[in-house]
UniProtKB/TrEMBL annotation:
The keyword Magnesium does not apply. InterPro entries: DUF347 (IPR007136). The chain crosses the membrane at residues 43-62, 74-93, 99-119, 139-159, 171-200, 221-240, 267-287. It comes from the Bacteria. This is Putative membrane-anchored protein. Keywords: Membrane, Transmembrane, Transmembrane helix. It comes from Asanoa ferruginea.
Length: 399
């Protein structure tokens, strides 16, 4: 039997509007790029990053549960953090435990179905507008976390196993969301279409982020992860700030009304946010490409490596060869510092390279991990480092 509504509680989630979906897609990309930044660029590693993000999410959810009404800033902070943790859960299963994407996608789909079944048996409703008790909110965030894990697994399956790539992924997942919206307009169940769209926004956000960040030789717009994250963060701040203003003035149920609200203004804000991302992204991407071309003119020609199904791997081979030379001189400290460039550049190019030839990508990824492990050991051995680098350079040159 459903529990009684807690005194003073109002619905704890935002109205489902156009700006809701824009913020959701952008926050998905922010979550993924920020986790990658902490893991690779800052150098925390996956274990420390996972533990840190889970701890921060726990604190944020405590604050969210202690509120008595929809508070935009804390709600969307929780969404970003849940997107990070959901992605990390899938990555742990696939990268650490070696679970196939087919299996992980199926498992998370079953888990989500179980969450919905238990939620409905307990509450007799799955309506988003009914999140007005602590237990219902617990089910809601459990479902949100599972949708991110499922969306990550399904998105990776589509782009990697099916070799769709992020350009096709953006079009396909965007098209599926459009079809879901049309189904909702045609009378399909609102609860069902909401959750389908919610799952699909995770791979859409990842594909869109990769489209903006990847270099042009990999099919992207070459905006870069840092500038993409900053651009999305600014747009999110503006939209969430508007949400907070409207929620303070009108409350969550009526936030679409009033002098600044209404359906048409909401569509206008959503369209403006999308246009800003497109215009600024294209402009900064062209600027970045021009700067790269100028910089390339000042770099001495390196030995060109053959094009493979992964593309031209010259930039990775050059770094690996530099590290190999340092290790050959027994300069392990210098090699450890230089290999950071290989780790960052390889991670940045993952979305563009991996769908082209997943088997070769995984082989190289494992060999790069072996080099990193050898150089970052507490007491690194020159022989171990040299052996790991020899295998990596041979694969890069002959893959």
């Amino acid at each position: 039997m459903p529990i009684a509504r807690t005194s003073g509680w109002l619905t704890k989630v935002p109205a489902i509007t156009a700006t809701f979906w824009v913020i959701k897609v952008l926050s998905t990309t922010i979550g993924e790029t920020f986790a990658d930044y902490l893991t690779v660029n800052v150098g925390l590693g996956p274990a420390v990053t996972d533990a840190l993000m889970i701890a921060v999410l726990g604190v944020a959810l405590v604050i969210q549960f202690r509120t008595r009404r929809y508070t935009p800033w804390i709600y969307w902070l929780c969404v970003v953090l849940v997107s990070i943790v959901g992605t990390q859960i899938t990555d742990f299963f696939t990268d650490t435990l070696g679970v196939s994407l087919y299996l992980s996608t199926a498992v998370f789909a079953v888990v989500l179905a179980v969450v919905f079944v238990v939620w409905y048996r307990q509450e007799r409703t799955l309506a988003i507008t009914s999140i007005d008790t602590p237990r219902r909110e617990g089910f809601y965030w459990g479902a949100i976390l599972t949708t991110f894990a499922l969306g990550t697994a399904a998105g990776d399956l589509a782009t990697e196993a099916l070799s769709l790539g992020f350009r096709n992924g953006t079009l396909i997942f965007g098209g599926l969301i459009l079809l879901t919206w049309l189904a909702a307009r045609a009378g399909a169940g609102q609860v069902l279409t909401f959750w389908i769209a919610y799952v699909l926004t995770r791979p859409l956000g990842a594909s869109l982020g990769d489209l903006l960040t990847q270099s042009k030789d990999l099919g992207g717009l070459d905006l870069g992860a840092s500038r993409t994250s900053l651009l999305f963060f600014v747009v999110i701040l503006v939209l969430v700030g508007r949400e907070q203003l409207l929620a303070n003035r009108h409350g969550v149920v009526a936030k679409g009304d009033g002098p600044l609200g209404g359906r048409r203004p909401d569509y206008a804000w959503a369209a403006g946010a999308v246009a800003a991302v497109a215009i600024v992204g294209l402009g900064l991407g062209n600027l970045g490409s021009s700067q790269s071309e100028v910089a390339a003119l000042t770099i001495p020609d390196q030995q060109s490596h053959p094009h493979t199904r992964l593309g031209d791997l010259t930039r990775f081979a050059v770094i690996a060869t530099d590290v190999q030379t340092m290790v050959g001189r027994n300069d392990l400290a210098g090699g450890k510092a230089r290999v950071k460039d290989l780790e960052v550049s390889w991670d940045d190019a993952e979305a563009g390279l991996k769908p082209r030839d997943p088997g070769t990508w995984h082989q190289l990824d494992d060999e790069i991990d072996a080099v990193l492990t050898a150089l970052r050991a507490g007491n690194p051995s020159q022989a171990d480092c040299a052996a790991a680098l020899k295998a990596l350079v041979e694969t890069l040159n002959g893959s």
